[in-house]
Structures are given as C-alpha cells and as structure tokens.
C-alpha cells in the first residue's frame, strides 16, 4: 500500500498533467493579436507569437508572415548553432582542464602518501638517535666515575707499596751479613763433614737393605692375611649366590602363571567393549542424518528471518534518510560558516609555532659552537695525557726490566750459596764461589738503588698524569653539560617542529574540510529524491519475504523433534560405554604390570646365576694364591735378621763421629736459624710487594682502558649530536614538503571546483540553446 508521502507526490503529478494542457488551450483561444517587438530576439519572439495568435484567431496564417517567420527562425537557428559550437568547445576545454587538475591532485596525493612514509621513517630514526644519545651520555658519566675511582685506588696502592719496598731492601742487607758469618762456620766444619759423610753413606746403604728386607717380610705377611680374608668372603658370597638362584627360579614360575590368568580376562573385556562401540557408531550415524535435516530446515527459517529483519532495518533507514536529507543540507551551510571561523584561529597558531621554532634553532646553533670549542680543548688535554702515559709506560717498562734483573741476581746468589754449602772443606772452587757471590750481592745492591730511583720517577709521572686527568675531567663535565643542553634543545626543536607541523596540518585539514563541505551540497540535494523511491521499493520486498515464513517454520519444528529422539537413543548407548572401557583399561594395566614384574624376576635370575659362577671361580683362584704366599715367608724372615745386624755395627761407628760434630753443628744451626728468619721476613715482604705491584700495573691498565673508552664515548656522543641535528633537519624538510603538498592539493581542489562551476554554467547555456533550437528558434 503506498504511503501518504508517495500518494501526495502522485496527486501533484496528476494535477500538473491536467492543468498544463488546459493553460495551453486557453492561450490558443484567448491570446491577443501578434505585435512586433524591438531587437532581434524580440522580433523572433514576436514573429513566433504572431503566427500562433493569427492561427488561433482566424484559423489560417498569412503566407508572407509564414515566410518571414521561417527566414527569421533559420537565421536565429544558425546563430544559435554557432553559439552552441563555441560553448561546446569551451565546455570540452573546461573538461580537459578539470581532468588535468584531477590528475595533478592524484599525483599530489601519491606524493603525500610517500611523504607520510618518509616522515614516519624519519621520526622513528630521530627517536632511536635521541635514545642512543641519552644512553651514551649515561655511559660517559659512568666512565668518568670509574676513572676517578681507579685513580684513587692507584694512589692508595702506591702509598702501601713504598714502605714495603724500603723494608725489603733493609732485610736483604741484614741477610747478606748473616750469610757471611755462616760461611765462616761452614768452612770450619767442612773437614768433619767429609769424615762423617763416608760413614753415613755406608750406614745408609745398610739401613736401606734392612728396611727393604723388613718391608718385604711385612708385605708378604699382609698379603697372606688379606688372601685369607678374601677367601672367607668369597666362600660366603658363593653360598649366598646359590640360594638366590633357587629363590629367583621359583618367583619366575609364579609370575608366569599369574600373567596367563590376566591375559584371559583382558581378551574378554576387549570383546565386550568392541560390541558396544559398534552400536554407538550406528546410533551416531543415524543422529548425524537427522541433525543435517534439522540444520537445513533451521537455516532456511533463519535466512528468511534475517532477510525480513534486514529489509525492515533498511526500510526504517530509508524512511529516516528521506527526512534527514533536507536537515543535512541546512546543517551543511551552517558548518561551512563555522569552519571558516576556525580556519582563521588555526592560521594564527601556525604563525606562533613558526616563530618559536626559529628562536630554538638560533639557540641550538650557539650551543653547538660552544661544544666544538670544548671538544678541541679536550682533544688537546688528551694529547698531553697520551704523551705523559707514554713516558710513564717507558719508565714502568724500565722498572720491570730492573725487577727482572733483580730476580735473576737473587736466583744466581741463591744458586751460588747452594753450591758453596755442597763443597766439603776449604778449596779453591769454594773461594772462587765466595768471591763471585760477593760480586753478585754488590750488583744486586746497585740494581735495588736504581729501582728506588725509578719508582720515584714513576710517582712523579703519575702525579703529573693525575693533574692532567683532573683537567680533562673538568672539561668533560663542561662538555657533557653543553651536550645535555644541546640534546634538550634538539628535543625541544622536535616538539616545536611537531607543533608547527600540526598547526600547518590543521590549517590544511580545515581548508580541505571546508571544500569538502561545499562539494557535498549537490549530493545532499539529490539524496531527498532518491530516498522516497527507495522506501517504496523496500516495502514491496518486505511483504514478499513475510509471506513465505510460515511454511519454513513448520518444517524446522518437525526436524528438531526427530533430532531429540535420536539423541536419546545415542545417550542410552553411550551411558554403558564408560563401565566397559574402565574394565578393559584395568585389565590392560594389570597385564602390563605383571609383565614388568616377570621381566624383573627373569633379570634377577640371570644375575644370580652369573654371580654364583663368578663367586665359585674366585674362591678357587684365591686358595691357590694363598698356598704360594705361605711358601715364601721363611726366606724373607732370615734376610731381615742379617740386615739388622749389619746396620747395628755401622751405627756404632757413626756415633763416635757425630759426637765431634755436635758443637760445630750447634753453632751453624744458630746462624742458619737467623738466616732463615731473615729470609722468611724477606719472603713475606716480597709476597706483600708482588700483589701490590701487580695491582698497580692492573690499575694502570684499567685507567688507560677507561680513558680510551671515555674518549671513544665522547666521540660517539659528538657524532650522535650531529646525527640528531641532521635527522631533525631532514624531518623539518619533509614536514615542510608535506605542508606544501597539502597546500598544492587544496589549491588544485579549489581550481577543480571553479572549473566545475564554469562547466556547469556553460552546460546550462548549451541546454538553453538546444531547447530554443528544438522550438525552431522561438523562446520557450
């Protein structure tokens, strides 16, 4: 049934169809007599009107009036056709210009997308560089702190090392004096040692023989006792192994019988379960068929309901659209005026952002110049540090060479002292060695004096290096402060550039929104007419869908009932399945467990059998070994008795010689004790000095490495500052290009709108001329 709005439109069209012919008829019946008008257009209109009026008044038209009218109309048509040709050429030119402008807009849009991608990449690169710059700043601060801490540790180590080195030199001088006293005593007892030495050599040989015989006898007794114990243990093991074999054989037999019973029960449970599963499979197949029929019926009903709902929703939307179209047109005009006011505000904000960015760039250039000056100063100080470190390294190498020479001399003196001690009596060789040791000791004293001098030189270099390092640290602190200020300005520049870009984007966006709002007005005017036609068509479609819904709903209800019945059959079959499955699973578990038990028992039987065989073999072997050992025992006992008698006789001879040596040995022992004490003191001092020297060398290496690391980090930071500045410049350039691209697009769109307006005017003129030509030159 047509709605009221459609009914009203139909009534208006019918009234117009009746009224217009009536008006035309009245014009023919009651029109006044034709009169000529001034001008060409007026003359043409007058001729056309005169012919019509005369025909209406008299029923005929004068021939001369018809001829004049035909000539005038032909002239007017020719003129109109010329005007139409010119207008059509203008329209074609305007269309070409519009197409060219639209092509330019497409190219600008593509360039804008490419600029957006470049802007995104540049922004990500800038963010990564800023993050790396901050990380490098932190690393510079950490390196400076570590360098200061290492220098403090180095100073403390040098303070500990100096007194220890002085004490070591004094202790070595005392040791040399004691060694000279010991040499005198050694010369006096050398002759006595020669006499005792021969007797001791003979006594040592005899004692060694006696010891060897006693050890052989004791070893043989131990072997016999051990063999007897092992024989007893092996016999016990063999008896236990035989008993274990019998037990294992009985356990294997019992386990095999139990396994046969369990396998029979498992076979029966499997048969019951297979039968139940077959029944369930048949029931599921039947249920699937019924469910497919029910699903098809329900799907048909759902599809019909969905189509009806969709049609009803579309109908409501179309009815609402018919009313909204007129409201949207009025709102569009209001929105254009509002957007124009907002555009002026956005332009002012863009100007302010540009001024702030310029001020930030000027300040950043000033800070960059200060950073360059500080970096030059740091480079100069680092060059001085490098030169001083080279001098220090040379001195330390010379100190290391002196220390190595000192160590070599000490080793040579120790070796000469050992050789002197080994010589019995006073001989030319011993005298030569004593003179050689004295020369080496004097050379050692000279080397120690050089070491002390070299340590003082190194301390001076280290003091100079510490002063230079403090100056570098101060310059680095200033440089870091300026770099942080530069980083802050760069970050502010990015924010200001983003604000400027956002402001320019907002201006361009607002201009585009205003143009878009103007472009939407013709479409809004057309939407009202299209909405009424769409509502009528959708009402007919909805009525057809509602007619077929009842039949589909009945079919779906029958299919659902069949599904419910088949589901109950399947549920009854499946309810019995768990019990059968559990019985089968329990049976399988019992069989598997019994197989494991049987395998273990078989392994135990094999092991017990092997153990019994090995035990019996070991018993036989050990018994034969014990018999052989007992036969060797008597010969060894006699050899021990003879050796002990020879040792006792030689000990009596040595006792007399040792009595003469006691006084001399006591004197030498006292001197050696003092020397040993002093050498222990020297060793202790060397033990304490060595790690301090190693620590000092290590600290020097760490300080050099940390200084190099700090220099590298500062160079990285400078490079990162340049990269950040370049990245921000690139980002600004891309943003400026993007703004220019948007302005160009807006200008092209404005040009297209102007050309489209001109084209519409020309096309209206062409349509008016076409209508006049169709009327034979008369104005409608």
Question: Overview of this structure, please?
Answer:
There is one protein chain. Helix 2 crosses helix 3 and helix 4 crosses helix 5. Helices cover 96% and strands 0% of the residues. By secondary structure, the chain is mainly alpha-helical. 12% of the residues are buried. It has five helices and no strands. About 6% of the residues have low confidence.
Topology:
Blueprint: H1 4-30, H2 40-58, H3 63-422, H4 428-547, H5 549-774
Helix pairs in contact: 2-3, 3-4, 3-5, 4-5
The computed structural class is mainly alpha
Number of strands: 0
Backbone shape: flat
Q: How would you state the average pLDDT, rounded?
A: 76
End-to-end distance: 39 Å
How would you spell out the order of helices and strands? HHHHH
Largest sheet, strands/sense/barrel: none
Radius of gyration: 61 Å
As a percent range, the share of helical residues equals over 70%
In the predicted model, the low-confidence regions spanning at least 5 consecutive residues are: 4-46
Please tally the helical runs, counting DSSP H or I stretches of 4 or more residues. 5
Please report which band the strand proportion falls in: under 5%, 5-15%, 15-25%, 25-35%, 35-45% or over 45%: under 5%
Short overview:
The chain has 780 residues and is mostly helical.
Observed structural traits:
5 helices, 780 residues, single chain
């Amino acid at each position: 049934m047509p709605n009221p709005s459609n009914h009203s439109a139909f009534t208006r069209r019918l009234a117009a169809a009746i009224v217009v012919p009536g008006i035309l008829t009245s014009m023919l019946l009651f029109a006044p007599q034709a009169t000529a008008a001034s001008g060409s257009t007026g003359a043409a209109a007058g001729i056309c009107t005169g012919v019509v009026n005369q025909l209406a008044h008299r029923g005929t038209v004068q021939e001369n009036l018809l001829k004049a009218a035909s000539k005038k109309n032909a002239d007017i048509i020719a003129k109109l056709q010329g005007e139409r040709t010119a207008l059509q050429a203008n329209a074609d030119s305007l269309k070409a210009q519009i197409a060219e402008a639209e092509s330019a807009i497409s190219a600008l849009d593509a360039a804008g997308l490419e600029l957006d991608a470049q802007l995104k990449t540049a922004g990500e690169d800038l963010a990564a560089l800023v993050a790396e710059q901050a990380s490098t700043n932190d690393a510079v601060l950490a390196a400076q702190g570590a360098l200061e801490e290492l220098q403090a540790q180095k100073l403390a180590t040098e303070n500990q090392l100096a007194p220890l080195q002085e004490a070591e030199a004094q202790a070595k001088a005392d040791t040399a004096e004691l060694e000279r006293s010991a040499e005198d005593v050694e010369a006096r007892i050398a002759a006595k040692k020669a006499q005792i030495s021969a007797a001791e050599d003979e006594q040592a040989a005899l004692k060694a023989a006696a010891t060897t015989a006693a050890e052989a006898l004791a070893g043989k007794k131990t072997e016999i006792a051990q063999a007897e114990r092992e024989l007893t243990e092996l016999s016990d093991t063999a008896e236990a192994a035989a008993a274990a074999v019998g037990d294992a054989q009985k356990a294997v037999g019992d386990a095999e019988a139990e396994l046969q019973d369990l396998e029979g029960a498992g076979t029966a449970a499997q048969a019951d379960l297979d039968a139940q599963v077959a029944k369930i499979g048949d029931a599921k197949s039947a249920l699937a068929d019924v469910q497919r029929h029910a699903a098809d019926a329900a799907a048909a009903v759902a599809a019909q309901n969905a189509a009806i709902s969709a049609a009803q929703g579309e109908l409501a939307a179309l009815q609402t659209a018919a009313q909204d179209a007129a409201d949207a047109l009025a709102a569009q005009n209001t929105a254009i005026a509002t957007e124009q006011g907002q555009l002026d505000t956005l332009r002012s904000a863009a100007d302010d952002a540009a001024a702030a960015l310029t001020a930030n760039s000027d300040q950043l250039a000033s800070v960059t110049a200060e950073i360059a000056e500080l970096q030059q100063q740091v480079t100069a100080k680092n060059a001085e540090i490098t030169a001083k470190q080279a001098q220090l390294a040379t001195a330390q190498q010379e100190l290391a060479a002196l220390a190595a020479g000192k160590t070599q001399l000490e080793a040579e003196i120790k070796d000469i002292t050992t050789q002197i001690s080994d010589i019995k009596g006073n001989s030319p060789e011993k005298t030569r060695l004593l003179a050689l040791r004295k020369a080496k000791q004097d050379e050692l004293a000279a080397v120690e004096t050089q070491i002390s001098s070299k340590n003082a030189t190194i301390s001076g270099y280290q003091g100079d290096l510490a002063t230079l390092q403090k100056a570098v640290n101060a310059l680095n602190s200033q440089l870091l402060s300026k770099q942080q200020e530069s980083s802050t300005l760069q970050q502010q520049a990015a924010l200001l550039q983003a604000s400027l870009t956002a402001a320019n984007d907002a201006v361009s966006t607002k201009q585009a929104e205003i143009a878009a709002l103007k472009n939407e007005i013709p479409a809004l005017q057309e939407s009202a007419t299209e909405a009424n036609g769409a509502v009528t068509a959708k009402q007919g479609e909805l009525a057809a869908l509602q007619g077929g819904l009842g039949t589909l709903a009945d079919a779906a209800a029958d299919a659902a009932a069949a599904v419910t019945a088949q589901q109950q059959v399947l549920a009854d079959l499946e309810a019995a399945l768990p019990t059968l499955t559990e019985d089968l699973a329990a049976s399988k578990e019992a069989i598997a467990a019994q197989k494991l038990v049987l395998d273990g028992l078989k392994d135990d039987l094999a092991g017990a059998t092997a153990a019994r065989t090995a035990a019996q073999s070991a018993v036989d072997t050990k018994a034969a070994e014990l018999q052989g050992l007992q036969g060797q025992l008597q010969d060894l006992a006699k050899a021990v008795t003879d050796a002990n008698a020879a040792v006792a006789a030689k000990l009596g001879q040595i006792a007399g010689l040792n009595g003469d040596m006691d006084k001399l040995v006591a004197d030498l022992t006292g001197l050696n004790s003092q020397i040993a004490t002093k050498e222990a003191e020297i060793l202790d001092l060397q033990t304490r000095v060595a790690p301090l020297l190693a620590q000092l060398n290590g600290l020097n290496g760490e300080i050099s490495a940390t200084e190099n690391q700090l220099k590298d980090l500062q160079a990285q930071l400078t490079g990162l500052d340049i990269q950040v500045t370049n990245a921000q410049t690139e980002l600004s350039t891309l943003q400026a290009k993007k703004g220019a691209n948007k302005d160009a697009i807006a200008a092209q769109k404005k040009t297209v709108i102007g050309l489209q307006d001109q084209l519409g005017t020309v096309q209206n003129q062409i349509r008016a001329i076409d209508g006049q030509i169709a009327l034979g030159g008369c104005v409608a």
